[in-house]
Every structure is written in structure tokens, then in C-alpha cells.
Amino acid sequence: MKRSFYDGIIRDLKDQGFRLTKVRMAIIEELDRAKKPLSAGELIGLLKKRGLGPHKTSVYREIAFMLEQEIINRLSFGERQDRFELAALEHHHHAICKVCGEIEDIACSEGIRQIEEMLGKQKFKVSGHLIEFFGLCTSCQQSS
Amino acid sequence: MKRSFYDGIIRDLKDQGFRLTKVRMAIIEELDRAKKPLSAGELIGLLKKRGLGPHKTSVYREIAFMLEQEIINRLSFGERQDRFELAALEHHHHAICKVCGEIEDIACSEGIRQIEEMLGKQKFKVSGHLIEFFGLCTSCQQSS
DNA sequence: AAATCTAATGCAACTAAGTTGCGATAAGAT
DNA sequence: ATCTTATCGCAACTTAGTTGCATTAGATTT
Ligand SMILES: [Mn+2]
Ligand SMILES: [Mn+2]
Ligand SMILES: [Zn+2]
Ligand SMILES: [Zn+2]
Predict the structure, then answer these.
(1) What distance lies between CA A6 and its chain's CA centroid?
(2) What is the fold of B93-143?
(3) Beta A125-136 vs B92-97: how paired, if at all?
(4) Given this model, what pLDDT does residue B68 score?
(5) Helix (H, G, I), strand (E, B), or coil: what is residue B71?
(6) Which residue is closest to C6 in terms of CA–C1' distance?
(7) 3-state DSSP assignment of residue A46
(8) Can you tell me the distance from the alpha carbon of A4 to that of B45, in angstroms, rounded to the nearest whole number?
(9) Where are the domains of chain B?
(10) Assigned CATH for B6-86
(11) Nearest protein residue to nucleotide C20, judged by CA and C1' positions
(12) Looking at residue A144, what is its pLDDT?
């Protein structure tokens, strides 16, 4: 069940006339391969391993590009750095281990209690949760 | 229904033998008065308005102290800065306006859909949500 | 295959949030 | 009033991310 989104993303980019640089393709591949959202720093490390040594500026600019193109989503667990995952993934949530930082994907089901029970059965010991809703407040809806 | 936590917190600190400095008391008062979680920068601004001009280092150290004493909780919406609110507040969640940054407290009820409907009635237009569960993964439970 | 166009890159310098070491100050006990 | 030490101010540092500008390299054209 671990389908790859790589080919589709690359095709779309080519169709839209964007260049397929080594770094661009490698970043998509790493995000596709990764089982958890990656930080800019982690990406730089993975690219270095592959023999590519892009400057951090380029990686940040590539991330900005991919956010614009809605290829990736930015997320932030309360670390100092942002993390990124492919936008093609179905909407889901995360369970994060407070000790080792391991991140597990969680399907978005309706009830909070429900999800916590499910995690319990998987032996993940939930100690808290964080829920945020994003959108437009009343006054910001009017002025748009 | 806007009860104050100030007196209780101050009493506890005194009982435990901590010093009641001007800045310490002012920070608690500002967090108590604020209707939304405050960042370190916002706190520094509020203190300046009151005639206190503490160095940012002192404010950060005070925040660290209050986290240790569990007087405040750290939270982070995907901004670059952290935010803090009184730990004495009942567990709840937040609705954040993507335009003006306004933050509204949301009671922690069971269903996600339920909360979104409630926000809709209050004219807050939800465009997305973020849910994270924190705890211990299987292997980190064993090694503790 | 070479010339061309310009998106993407590298570098240096910068910003913003937060941290650390250390000597000075002030809260509160005696 | 004096003393003790928790707290503070300052300078210097760190880490994540950003910006301006000159250079390089994908892709297209010749
Ligand atoms: Mn995920
Ligand atoms: Mn709140
Ligand atoms: Zn773990
Ligand atoms: Zn708003």
C-alpha cells in the first residue's frame, strides 16, 4: 500500500514547463521515500549522501517553490524547524513520540477518543493532544 | 466567567520560597489578562509599556522558570516563535485566523466535525485543521 | 553540436528567535 | 543595615531561514 507519487509529480512539473534539476528530482524522491515529514536540514543531509551538495539557500528556495506549486505541505510540531511532506498524501494526522521523535501517520477519523483508543491498541501511549483549526475569523471574511 | 489565576500563582510561588520580582509578577499578570497565548516578543512589548524594561534574556529565563514550575504551557502554531499561556486554564484548543492571526479558545469536545460546526455558527470559516497526539512509542515505553 | 534564454544556483551577508557565561544587582531573610 | 543568593543585564553565540547579486546549467532553438 506504499504507492509512489514521484512520477506524477515529475510529469506535472515538466508539463508546466519547470526545469527538472537533479536537486529538484532528488528532493521529491526523498520526500516520497521518507515515511515521515522531513526538515530542511534532514533533506540537505540526504542529498549530501547521494553525492549532491546543494547550498542550503537552494534547498530553501526549492522548498518555497514546492510549497507554491502545492507539491508539499509545511507542518510544524513544536520543534524549532519546519517539516514537509508530499501534499499528494491523503489528509491525515500524526502521533509523535516525545522521547525519540518518531512520527506515525494517523488517519483522520471523526472522534478524538476513537483515535486515542486505536493508538492504545497499537501500544502508543498517548499523553496529550493538540488540535488547531485554521481559517478566517468574522472580520477577515468581510474584508475579502 | 473570566476568573483570574494571578493570586493563586503568586501565593504558590511565595510559599515555595521563590522571589516575587516586578517582572515575574508583571508577566503572570499579562498572561492572565491576555485573551490569547503570548509570545516572548509580545511579553517584552507589554512589559515595556508598563515602564519595566527587562532584557530579553531575563524574559526568556523567566519563561523557562515558569515552564519548569508548570505555571505556563508552551504552544506553537506554525509561526517561528513559541507562545505561552497559563497552565491553570482548562485544557482547550485554538482556532487561528490565517489572515489577522487572531486566536480563539475552543473547548475540547469529542468530535472534530462537531467543533467545526460550532465554529461555523460563530462565523469562523474553517479551512483546515491540524491534530497531533503526543506520547511514547512502543520502543520508548520499554526503555523507561 | 553550438548558441541562446532564463530558471535555478552559490555565495556572502543578513535577520529573528532563542541561548550561554559571567559579573552585577536587588529580594527578602536575619 | 547587612547578608545571601536568586535573578538580572550585557555581550557574544547559535540555529533556522532569507535576500541581493553575479554565475551556472536545463531546455529549447538553430
Ligand atoms: Mn504524515
Ligand atoms: Mn488558549
Ligand atoms: Zn519513541
Ligand atoms: Zn482574522
Answers:
(1) 14
(2) Dna Ligase; domain 1 (3.30.1490)
(3) parallel
(4) 97
(5) coil
(6) A19
(7) helix
(8) 49
(9) 6-86, 93-143
(10) 1.10.10.10
(11) B57
(12) 65
